[in-house]
Amino acid sequence: MREVGFEVVSVAHSANGVRDEVVIQIALQQNYILLTEDKDFGEWVFAHHVQDLSVLFLRYSFHEFRDIAQTLVHLLKTQTLERPFYTTITTKKIRIRKL
Questions:
Q1: For 21-63, what is each residue's pLDDT tens digit?
Q2: Contact assessment for residue 50 and residue 24, using Cβ atoms and an 8 Å cutoff
């Protein structure tokens, strides 16, 4: 993502091991979009009703990494995503849910 000009803050590099609640709090305070491979954030949005969190959830297998990266970059460069949203991205489909 950085290579194509997006600003990225990595939890794995800056706050590895923090709980999901902390990641959510940081994303909300900084107005970040949460990019994740962890389906638990869907539970936070839909079951625990976390408000105002925008999530890009990537679902792919290891051999699809290049394709999912291209799909993500294409989405972000061509779509205006109205926040908050929960978006599931696969190599074959993008499902955008406005929250």
A1: 999 999 999 999 999 999 999 999 999 999 999 999 999 999 9
A2: yes
User: Is the model's pLDDT at 12 over the cut of 90?
Assistant: no
Identify whether the C-beta of residue 89 lies closer than 8 Å to the C-beta of residue 56. Answer: yes
Pick from 60, 16, 10, 57: which is nearest to 38 by CA? 57
* Contact (Cβ atoms closer than 8 angstroms) between residue 10 and residue 17: no
Q: Please list, residue by residue across 23-53, b when 16 or more beta carbons sit within 10 angstroms of its beta carbon and e when fewer do.
A: bbebbbeeeebbbbeeeebeebbeeeebeeb
The span from the CA of 87 to the CA of 97, in Å, is 6
Number of neighbours of residue 72 by Cβ within 10 angstroms: 20
Q: pTM of the full predicted structure?
A: 0.93
> How many C-beta atoms lie closer than 10 Å to residue 90's C-beta?
16
Structure tokens at 34: 């949460």
